[in-house]
Design goal:
The complex is a heterodimer.
Chain A lengths: L1 E2 L1 H10 L7 E4 L2 H11 L2 E5 L12 E4 L2 H11 L3 E2 L2 E2 L3 E5 L3 E12 L4 E7 L6 H7 L4 E5 L14 H16 L2 E12 L4 E3 L2 E5 L8 H4 L9 H8 L3 E4 L4 E5 L2 H13 L6 E4 L8 H9 L6 E8 L4 H15 L5 E7 L2 H12 L7 H12 L1
Parallel strand pairs in A: 15-17, 17-18
Antiparallel strand pairs in A: 1-13, 2-7, 3-4, 3-7, 5-6, 8-9, 8-11, 9-10, 11-12, 11-13, 14-16
Chain B lengths: L8 E4 L4 H13 L3 E5 L7 E2 L2 E4 L2 H8 L4 E4 L3 H13 L4 E4 L6 H14 L2 E3 L5 E4 L3 E4 L11 E8 L2 H13 L4 E6 L10 H10 L5 E7 L4 H9 L6 E6 L23 H10 L3 E2 L5 H5 L1
Parallel strand pairs in B: 1-2, 1-5, 2-4, 5-6, 6-7, 10-11, 10-12, 12-13, 13-14
Antiparallel strand pairs in B: 3-4, 8-9, 8-11
The chains are: A alpha+beta, B alpha/beta.
Chain lengths: 363, 285
């Protein structure tokens, strides 16, 4: 779950990391009033995406009139698919130097990693490409905490250790301050902040769970979320229902290999294998779907339970669409028997053949 | 990480619905299950297996345990893993999906300090056909598994099952199936599994079932260049859009990182035969 800058900065402030004085605004009048109080400010679109500056989502203003017109221009903008509804108006700082600091989950070391660079302002890929020498990487032993002394200036080390504590406290996947600025009068200030919290940890982060940015979902994806299903809408016309992430991706791959295009990703593996009925309804709710491939290869997921759910849904919904099955693994014999008796259909032995038939039927 | 008939296995969460179902399957297959764990039912017997309060307790009373497998929900997974690691198991199979990432990192740190190997999280487990299996794979289905010479490494349980089924269909059997898991931070990587299969005398060739996300397949090319045994690979996710988690927490393409094209190019440059469909795997061996 991603967080907007203003939410992330509230957390920074609570963690004792200095952020500029600012106000969250929803319209041009309040933005103008805020600048009246703060003086020269930055008006910043609140969307959970980087690159706001490059898309015109951040403007510097000197007075309330400029703030009003900047706010009018930014509110309602579309930035990376999200409509801007809120602005953060923040007092400008006198910057001596731009720095970069982050803590993230590092897959390679299977441990937290602290990143620091004196080339702030650019994104991390740009720093890695253009100024790799400026990047300090500090792997952290999560059982002991970070060892920063001698690696960073004292005030930076203090700020980074606060950042690390906040990263632990929020179950963050990424907590990034960029730029972190050194002020002309001395001292550090977090000018921008990105926070992404681990979805798997939201159950123990009740205070954060309601404050994250709304995910960009289609109506069908939102319906899938409500059913507890992993559904992703795609532009093609062959509906997909399979169990397990690997098998579902592979079903999509074979559809493309046979010259077709998948209409969705939908997997009912793991604990979701009992949800086949709702899942089929979801596949059918997409009006672009012209044929359906149902591909089960049960390990943990019992194919007889999944086939039973599909048949229930099929008999209720009576869709007039061609459907093709391939079923193997745990519960296979019972599943095949169910499909034969109730749907009068013969599953294909090879999934490639079932997929090819579904692709042909969609043409 | 190749499970053997002699390995003493403890099942954490054995008395639950899934724990019971799969413990009976493992026992019937020949896996040497010496104990189960449920603190509320310590001292009892369940599916013919003694129940202990903890893995530590089981290991102490049984004179040691080699492997522990966890049927434990995400919120309790870290404490369960710490128990197993503290008990001195050599191998810990973590089936649980959706464990908070910070807990996963703590697990890996504890395992590394104790010299314990974690397989997973979010793995379907390990199978040594004709000998033993640990996890939630249909090892007992003779259309999917039979003893042979092919070592299979897979991030996915369902797709790994399909590939094993295709191998048996084509007349091959497996020396070992190593499910490494669908999480982004795994205790056992593709490289680790390749090393184990290269060293395994019964394995003549290796099938690598990869998927998009992360850089494990790319990282493995270094070791692949040094292997004596041939490697054939299928990578899932060619048709998946970037920026979306495709079911597995680890299966996400970010920018060019973790993409299908990057993995295929890297593996092919190391001499791996990468095929377009799961059915083509056997033909490439």
């Amino acid at each position: 779950m991603d967080f907007e800058e203003a939410e992330a900065k509230n957390l920074l402030r609570q963690a004792g990391i200095p952020v500029p004085p600012g106000e969250l605004c929803r319209d041009a009048d309040s933005a103008a009033a805020a600048v009246g109080r703060l003086g020269r400010s930055a008006v910043k679109a609140q969307v959970p995406s980087g690159k706001r500056g490059r898309t015109g989502g951040i403007r510097l203003v000197d007075d309330p009139e400029q703030a009003r017109s900047a706010a009018r221009a930014i509110l309602g903008m579309d930035i990376a698919g999200t409509r801007v509804e809120r602005l953060l108006v923040e007092k400008c700082a006198s910057i001596a130097q731009e720095l970069y600091a982050a803590v993230l989950n590092d897959a390679a070391t299977r441990a937290p990693m602290i990143l620091f660079s004196t080339a702030g302002g650019m994104d991390i890929e740009e720093i890695a490409a253009q100024k790799p020498g400026s990047m300090v990487r500090i792997p952290v032993d999560i059982a002991r905490g970070p060892a920063l002394s001698g690696k960073l200036d004292e005030d930076v080390a203090d700020l980074v250790s606060r950042l690390y504590s906040l990263y632990l406290q929020t179950d963050a996947e990424l907590l990034e301050v960029n730029p972190l600025v050194r002020l002309q009068g001395g001292g550090l200030l977090a000018l921008d902040c990105k926070l992404s919290v681990d979805d798997a940890a939201l159950f123990r982060q009740p205070a954060l769970a309601g404050k994250g940015a709304r995910e960009k979902l289609t109506d069908l994806e939102r319906r899938g979320r409500g059913l507890g299903l992993k559904y992703i809408e795609l532009p093609g016309d062959v509906g997909v229902l399979a169990n397990g992430a690997g098998l579902t991706m592979t079903t999509m791959d074979v559809i493309e290999h046979c010259g077709g295009a998948p209409a969705n990703f939908l997997e009912i593996g793991g604990d979701a294998y009992t949800k086949a009925e709702g899942a089929l309804g979801l596949v059918l709710a997409n009006p672009r779907v012209k044929s359906i491939i149902i591909n089960f290869c049960g390990a943990f997921a019992r194919t007889d339970v999944m086939a039973g759910g599909v048949i229930e849904a099929w008999e209720k919904l009576k869709p007039g669409l061609p459907v093709f099955f391939s079923v193997h693994g745990t519960g296979e014999e019972e599943a095949v028997e169910l499909i034969k008796q109730r749907l009068k259909m013969e599953p294909y032995d090879r999934m490639e053949d079932a997929v090819r038939a579904a692709v042909e039927a969609a043409k | 990480m190749i499970v053997r008939a002699a390995d003493r296995v403890v099942v954490q969460g054995m008395t639950g619905r899934q724990g019971s179902f799969w413990t009976e399957k493992m026992l019937a297959y020949g896996t040497r299950i010496v104990g189960g764990v449920n603190p509320k039912r310590a001292g009892q017997t369940h599916v013919g297996v003694p129940v202990f309060a903890s893995v530590r307790d089981a290991a102490q009373k049984l004179g040691g345990a080699d492997v522990s497998v966890m049927f434990i929900p995400p919120a309790a997974a870290l404490a369960a893993a710490e128990d197993a690691i503290g008990a001195g198991v050599r191998l810990l199979v973590v089936l649980t999906e959706h464990i908070p990432a910070h807990d996963v990192m703590r697990m890996h740190a504890a395992a590394a300090a104790a010299g314990c190997r974690i397989v997973g999280p979010n793995t379907a487990g390990l199978v040594t056909p004709g000998e033993a299996f640990v996890g939630i794979m249909p090892a007992f289905n003779p259309r999917v598994f039979r003893p042979g010479k092919i070592g299979v490494i897979s991030r996915s349980g369902s797709l790994g099952t399909l590939v094993c089924l295709n191998l048996v269909d084509a007349g091959y059997g497996q020396s070992a199936f190593i499910g490494i898991g669908g999480d982004p931070m795994l205790g056992t990587t593709v490289t680790d599994a390749l090393r184990a299969l290269e060293a395994d005398e019964r394995t003549a060739a290796i099938v690598l079932v990869g998927e998009i996300g992360g850089t494990m397949e790319e990282d493995a090319t270094e070791i692949i260049r040094t292997l004596r045994k041939p490697v054939v690979s299928f990578i899932a996710g060619r048709a998946s859009p970037p920026g979306k988690k495709m079911g597995h927490a680890g299966a996400i393409v970010m920018g060019s990182r973790g993409s299908y094209a990057s993995k295929r190019r890297a593996l092919e440059s190391a001499g791996v035969r990468v095929v377009d469909t799961p059915a083509a795997v056997a033909g490439a061996l």
